[in-house]
Amino acid sequence: MATQSIVKVSELLYPRLTVPDLDAMEAFLMDFGMVRAARDADTLYMRGTGAAAYVHVVHKGATGFAGFAFGVASRNDLDRLAASEGFSAVEPRTEPDGGWRTTTRDLDGNFVEVVFGHVFNDAKGVAPRRLNIGDRFERIGELQRVPPRPSRIKRFGHIALNVASPAEALVWYNARFGLIASDRVNIAPGMPAAIFVRCNRGVVPTDHHTMLFASSMATAGVSGLNHLSWEVCDIDDVHAGNAHLAAKRHAHEWGIGRHLLGSQIFDYWRDPWGHIHEHWTDGDQLDASIPAGDHPISGAQANQWGPDMPPSFGRTIAPTN
Ligand SMILES: [Fe+2]
283 CA to middle of ligand 1, Å? Predict the structure, then answer.
């Protein structure tokens, strides 16, 4: 895109959900693969194995989606945004990891925070399992044993929103945050029903999509959360995580499969109030030079292998079981 953005965001930090029962949400997120970072009477912070202080924020209240946060590279970026139309003044954050933020609302009314100066934890992360694959034998003399336990969550990866206009959403997010298109799924030429967008980090490769804008035509015109997604450590974490969540009788949504656009191996689950939470591994990494792809809409975009996408996917509804 030719436009000059106000800043270029570098990453996504966390979503905010609101649910009436923090105990039940914490139990679900532990089964999903997170651990508690902090909790008080009103708010639950859950972390993964990475350096982010937390990767999910849950507030006590009526069920709903309450926004999400980007990280930027400098305080100067926050000041530039705060000086722009529609953004709050820079304010100190009241969260456990400190720092500052400015906030705004997007075209569909979603609350967007932009954060800098927060502290990280001392997590070193976990290494993926070594594999004997192709002509690479990485674990000679070493047995592969995968303990039955929740998936290991590395980081918050992307957020998918149902929006009134994916094209207008991209223009809005590009002008403010520098997000660029990776792939468009088009109803007709120039009429995208969905746009996968990534951060513009120049020559630094980044996730194929940090956001997905899906047309709210598919949700009867209702904008809002489509799904939330976290990267897990490796392929065993997708499958072992699936087995653990199934054993705990959580509501499965879709998977395991490999997407086409973004290429991730994915698995989707619903929290007790129906918000869709995704595990993924082995996604595409693209630098900013890769041009956007255009694809005519068809069921073929959903996955390369694995089960068909259920009609309920992308709709935040309470599970029926
Ligand atoms: Fe996803």
Answer: 10
Q: Are 22 and 40 in contact (CB under 8 A)?
A: no
How far apart CA 54 and CA 25 sit, in angstroms, is: 15
User: What is the residue extent of each domain of the chain?
Assistant: 11-120+153-301
Ligand 1 centre from 160 Cα, in Å? 7
What does the alpha-carbon distance between residue 214 and residue 185 come to, in Å, rounded to a whole number?
9
Give, in order, the Cα–Cα distances in Å from 223 to each of 9, 217, 229, 270. Answer: 23, 9, 18, 18
Alpha carbon distance 230, 49 (integer Å): 11
Confidence class of residue 315 from pLDDT cuts 50, 70 and 90?
confident
Peptide bond preceding 256: is omega within 30 degrees of 0, i.e. cis?
yes
Dihedral sign for Cα atoms in the order 244, 245, 248, 252: negative
Cα Rg of the chain, angstroms: 19
- C-alpha of residue 88 to centroid of ligand 1, in Å: 29
237: CA distance to ligand 1 center in Å? 16
Residue-by-residue DSSP string for 89-119: PPEE--STT--EEEEEE-TT--EEEEEESPP
Q: If you measure from the C-alpha of residue 267 to the centroid of ligand 1, how many angstroms do you get, rounded to a whole number?
A: 9
129 vs 138: CA distance, rounded Å: 9
Instruction: Specify the pLDDT at position 319.
Output: 46
Chain segment 3-58, per-residue pLDDT in tens = 699 999 999 999 999 999 999 999 999 999 999 999 999 999 999 999 999 999 99
Q: Using the 8-state DSSP alphabet, how is residue 8 labeled?
A: -
Domain 11-120+153-301, second-level architecture: Roll (3.10)
- The alpha carbon of 209 and the centre of ligand 1 are apart by a number of angstroms equal to 8
- For ligand 1, the distance from its centroid to the CA atom of residue 207, given in whole angstroms, is 11
Distance 185 CA to ligand 1 centre (A): 15
CA 280 to centroid of ligand 1, rounded, Å:
8
Q: Which residues pair with 159 in a beta bridge?
A: 211, 228
